[in-house]
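Problem 12. The chain below contains 93 residues. Write out its predicted structure in token notation.
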Amino acid sequence: GRATPAAMPTTVKDAIKKFETTNECVAAEAEKVLLYGTEPPIEKMDNSLATLKKCVQLSLSTNNIEKIGSLAGLECLKILSLGKNQIKKAGKP
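Solution.
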């Protein structure tokens, strides 16, 4: 049998879109953005996160993120959940 190709990782942008559809809301206006357990998993935090201007709590747990990306633009962020990822070591500030 032929091996099935691995699914492409979900981008943050797509995960945000899916979040908006599921929750019938605008992510840029949401205080709590839950992107945990995305299938296929998110592999990198990209600058789509900067659109989450009002986000106070951001959950990216249970994905395949390897390093903590930029949180620029997330002025309201207080809680960032990154448990159960593949983070090797936090980058230097």
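Discussion. The beta strands are 32-34, 57-59, 79-81. Students who got a different answer should revisit the alignment rule from Section 12.3.
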